[in-house]
């Protein structure tokens, strides 16, 4: 086997997503499996260059994982011809500037969502990358979750017949930070720092709905900041200026209606932190991160509304589990593999900065729809 090294500048690896999902569970996991077998006698060996603002934190990570390259000088890293890919999982507000610089330096770029703070900037990034002729990608991890892979399989096999509705419930209680530390960074709750659950979650809903059930044609959202006071990483109280819940309705091309609640102020009484129910003329499914259950038309029970009679048996027991299709892979790693193959082998890839801009557009229109108290059309995004 011939080994081909690909050097990847990874910015934001001290963060929650950058460290755990992208560095450890994706890039280092690829190294642990001996590299990425390209199937032509070549193994791709990702060589991360950890980039960030705090050298000591980067060095600590590098040491822990036996990595060689760290830098606090993004300009120098981007000027290095050995670096082929720039990856960004910084706070959202820092992304656009860094991605612009990487594109200008001729690097292929892969980054977290949302790609920018506003739609014109997100579209501009896509245009710049296209003009520079670099490969570009945006994380759309939910598409690669085992439960949602099963849901896609059902949709593509025609299981649902005509899809009528999609209802999604996402969320969990994020601690305020006073008695117990918050599970999410404090910038998430400050609009001025690029926070808010709409910017965070609507990009996910956009690609999920788009790919599985049809392009989002209209959006109507109601947002709330349910918890107005939180405590930051240093234990200091601050005012939450960004919404922590969004109740959205999306009309899809093809006629289905999607209704998705996203909340960091909800306690979980579900099997998974995200659950998507799809009802179609021929069958229904409920999918989560890992599992997916179905109820086909032919075995749909006959519930009858009668408050005087206790329901016979459990409704949940009337659903059938879709079996796993082999070992469960990490969704982030699965997408990394495809992106790297796209970069070095030019294999097909569609989760690019245009798709990223679409997600940012939906978030912007969602917020506007709430501010204006009306449903808004969602234009198609074209370069
Ligand atoms: N795909 C997903 O499911 C998913 C989930 C959560 C977050 N995200 C996205 O990933 C990105 C990072 O989110 P996170 O939760 O890992 O955030 P985080 O706060 O844990 O990490 C942020 C990273 O950015 C760095 N950074 C750079 N400039 C900064 C600045 N000016 N202030 C503060 N930090 C700065 C930090 O050092 C850190 O490495 C966000 O854009 C977020 O939208 C994606």
From TrEMBL:
Pfam family, any one: GFO_IDH_MocA
Keywords: Oxidoreductase
Domain of life: Bacteria
Domain GFO/IDH/MocA-like oxidoreductase: 150-285
Keyword set includes Endoplasmic reticulum: no
Domain Gfo/Idh/MocA-like oxidoreductase N-terminal: residue ranges: 50-136
Keyword Nucleus: no
UniProt-listed Gene3D superfamilies: Dihydrodipicolinate Reductase, domain 2, NAD(P)-binding Rossmann-like Domain
Protein name: Gfo/Idh/MocA family oxidoreductase
């Amino acid at each position: 086997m011939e080994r081909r090294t690909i050097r990847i500048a990874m910015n934001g690896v001290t963060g929650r997503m950058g460290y755990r999902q992208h560095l450890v569970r994706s890039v280092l996991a690829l190294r642990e499996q001996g590299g990425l077998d390209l199937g032509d006698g070549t193994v791709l060996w990702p060589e991360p260059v950890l980039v960030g603002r705090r050298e000591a934190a980067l060095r600590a990570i590098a040491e822990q994982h036996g990595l060689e390259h760290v830098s606090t000088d993004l300009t120098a890293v981007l000027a290095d011809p050995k670096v082929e890919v720039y990856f960004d999982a910084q706070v959202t507000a820092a992304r656009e500037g860094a991605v612009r610089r990487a594109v200008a330096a001729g690097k292929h770029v892969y980054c977290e969502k949302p790609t920018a703070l506003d739609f014109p900037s997100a579209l501009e990034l896509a245009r710049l990358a296209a003009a520079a002729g670099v490969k570009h990608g945006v994380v759309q991890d939910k598409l690669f979750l085992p439960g949602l892979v099963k849901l896609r399989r059902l949709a593509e096999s025609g299981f649902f017949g005509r899809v009528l509705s999609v209802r999604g419930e996402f969320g969990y209680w994020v601690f305020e930070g006073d008695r117990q530390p918050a599970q999410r960074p404090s910038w998430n709750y400050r609009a001025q720092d690029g926070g808010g659950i709409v910017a965070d979650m609507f990009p996910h809903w956009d690609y999920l709905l788009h790919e599985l059930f049809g392009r989002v044609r209209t959006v109507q959202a109601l947002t709330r900041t349910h918890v107005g006071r939180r405590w930051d990483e240093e234990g200091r109280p601050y005012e939450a200026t960004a919404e922590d819940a969004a109740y959205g309705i999306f009309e899809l091309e093809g006629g289905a209606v999607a209704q998705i609640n996203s909340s960091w102020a909800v306690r979980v009484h579900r099997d998974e932190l995200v659950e998507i129910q799809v009802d179609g003329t021929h069958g229904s499914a409920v999918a989560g991160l890992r599992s997916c259950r179905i109820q086909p038309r032919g075995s749909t029970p006959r519930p009858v509304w009668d408050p005087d009679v206790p329901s016979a048996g459990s409704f949940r027991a009337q659903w059938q589990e879709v079996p796993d299709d082999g070992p469960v892979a990490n969704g982030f790693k699965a997408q990394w593999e495809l992106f790297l193959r796209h970069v070095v082998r030019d294999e097909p890839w569609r989760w690019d900065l245009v798709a990223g801009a679409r997600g940012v557009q939906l978030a912007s229109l969602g917020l506007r729809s709430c501010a204006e108290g009306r449903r808004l059309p969602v234009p198609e995004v074209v370069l």
